[in-house]
From TrEMBL:
<comment type="similarity">
    <text>Belongs to the sulfotransferase 1 family.</text>
</comment>
<dbReference type="InterPro" id="IPR000863">
    <property type="entry name" value="Sulfotransferase_dom"/>
</dbReference>
<feature type="domain" description="Sulfotransferase">
    <location>
        <begin position="49"/>
        <end position="306"/>
    </location>
</feature>
<dbReference type="GO" id="GO:0008146">
    <property type="term" value="F:sulfotransferase activity"/>
</dbReference>
<protein>
    <recommendedName>
        <fullName>Sulfotransferase</fullName>
        <ecNumber>2.8.2.-</ecNumber>
    </recommendedName>
</protein>
<dbReference type="InterPro" id="IPR027417">
    <property type="entry name" value="P-loop_NTPase"/>
</dbReference>
<dbReference type="Pfam" id="PF00685">
    <property type="entry name" value="Sulfotransfer_1"/>
</dbReference>
<keyword id="KW-0808">Transferase</keyword>
Length: 310
């Protein structure tokens, strides 16, 4: 497989001092590690109707969505004092399809009984069984300008580059050209959006900003959709509010595991997944020309869809 990947079109990110190379596969870009796991999943992963797939492009609210859904699904087994989210990053609690071995995930699903799996793969590149099984798919998306800024800082800090050595202008230009991990971002969102119109009973789209604005209604909507609805008694007992509070950025970012740990013995620090979680941070980085440029392209890409990413 590695030899095949090396034959694909390549792009090395100059703003990261050539420390990250992406490969173009099935019309999207990804780093080699993600492609290897994702292609293996395409070939052998067998989804079940009870599975719940949490899908997203990077830096769109994935960590928050995983925390919320994990808390929803496991609330009868764990409470705030026993949940694995106290000792593990959300990305360890909800396995990532393109990183974990397929067999390992199937064993986890069998042993734990938790039907959760996450992926950054575009809709068109999901394993065929994910579609044919009619399992639930939840897709989260976010204001593209905040995605660009979040992606910039995550990659820069992952490679331990100070801002003066990683020009934001270059990072912006690459993203604008569609050269981002699992990008182009517009195509990623459009793929899931179109699928949600065709399969509304199987695919739910959540906008990050809407989830922040009205977490209660959206959490109940999410729980209903994946088949774990809150009872009237649970709502009266404050279960919904407790999940929202526990999974909030303020709480999760202050847990010791998310300040000092590293997931699965890797090199990335957990703290990198908790930067700001604020809307509109892009205004601290974008020039007027950048805003005009990205807004124009986004308007062109999403014309007639009703989607708003700015």
């Amino acid at each position: 497989m590695e030899e095949m990947i090396e034959t694909l079109p390549q792009h090395t990110c100059s703003w990261l001092k050539d420390k990250m190379t992406m490969y173009k596969y099935q019309d999207f870009w990804a780093i080699k590690r993600h492609l290897e796991g994702g292609i293996q999943a395409q070939q052998s992963f067998k989804a079940e109707p009870s599975d719940v797939f949490l899908c997203s492009a990077p830096k769109t609210g994935t960590t928050w969505l995983k925390s919320l859904v994990f808390a929803i699904v496991t609330r009868e087994k764990f409470d705030e004092s026993t949940t694995p989210l106290l000792t593990k990053l959300a990305h360890e609690c909800v396995p990532i399809l393109e990183i974990l071995q397929v067999k390992e995930h199937e064993n986890n699903r069998k042993n734990s009984g938790f039907p959760l799996v996450a992926t950054h793969f575009p809709y068109a590149s999901l394993p065929k069984s994910v579609i044919s099984s009619n399992c639930k798919i939840v897709y989260i998306y976010r204001n593209i300008k905040d995605v660009i800024v979040s992606n910039y800082h995550f990659r820069r800090e992952a490679f331990k580059l100070p801002m003066e050595d990683a020009p934001f202008e270059e990072a912006f230009e690459e993203f604008y050209q569609g050269l981002s991990n699992f990008g182009p971002y517009w195509d990623h969102v459009l793929g899931y959006w179109k699928a949600s119109l065709e399969r509304p009973d199987s695919i739910l789209l959540l906008k990050y900003e809407d989830l922040k604005r009205d977490p209660t209604s959206n959490l109940k909507r999410l729980a209903d959709f994946i088949g774990y609805p809150f009872s009237v008694d649970e709502e009266k007992a404050g279960v919904v509010d407790n999940i929202i509070r526990f999974c909030s950025f303020e709480n999760m970012s202050n847990l010791e595991v998310n300040k000092t740990g590293k997931p699965n013995g890797g090199t990335l620090e957990n703290r990198l997944y908790y930067r700001k979680a604020k809307d509109g941070d892009w205004m601290n980085y974008f020039t007027d020309d950048m805003k005009e440029k990205i807004d124009k392209l986004t308007d062109e890409k999403f014309s007639g869809t009703g989607l708003v990413l700015k």
